[in-house]
Amino acid sequence: APLTFFSIRVGPFQVASALVRKFERFPPAILRALGQAAVGLSVPDIENSITDEDLEASLPALGEVQGWNAEQSSAIVNKLLSSGYQIQNGQSLAKLGSLVAGLNSSTLQSLSPEVILEAIKLPEFVQ
């Protein structure tokens, strides 16, 4: 009898989710190593499996990840802000990278125009 192979199409998010399920904790080294696959982090992973310190230390890597959904980016930004991260200048805003979409409107409105003007002059923020 001929063998039949079934092709299962799996999207990038499903692969990323499967990868991150292998870990219980997410220290900076793992978050950096995951790279783009970090987009598979669930909101409970973000809230419970990453310490405040590890989240801030991993911010450069997480800010480069593309494809965060609104809940993920909000969870990361809210956790950062509640742990004491402050957006005092364009550099600290630019450091959020792709996570900037997680800022709520009241936080955005509280930023001074100088902070925003400084950030938009930074190539890494504009990208």
Describe the structure.
The chain has 127 residues and is mainly α. It has one domain (12-120). The chain has ten helices and no strands. It has helices at 12-20, 28-34, 43-48, 52-57, 59-62, 70-82, 90-94, 105-110, 113-120, 123-126. The radius of gyration is 17 Å and the shape is globular.
Short description:
This is Mesothelin. 54% of the residues lie in helices and 0% in strands.
Set down the secondary structure blueprint.
Layout: H1 12-20, H2 28-34, H3 43-48, H4 52-57, H5 59-62, H6 70-82, H7 90-94, H8 105-110, H9 113-120, H10 123-126
Salient structural properties:
127 residues, 10 helices, mainly alpha, single chain, 54% helix, 0% strand, Mesothelin
Q: Can you write the helix and strand succession as a string?
A: HHHHHHHHHH
Q: What are the segments in which pLDDT stays under 50 over at least 5 consecutive residues?
A: 5-10
- The first-to-last residue Cα distance is 55 Å
Spatial shape: globular
Biggest sheet features: none
Strand content: under 5%
Q: Compute the number of strand runs.
A: 0
The mean pLDDT is: 86
Tally of alpha and pi helices: 10
Q: Any idea what the radius of gyration is? A: 17 Å
Helical fraction equals 40-55%
What count of structural domains?
1
Report the structural category. mainly alpha
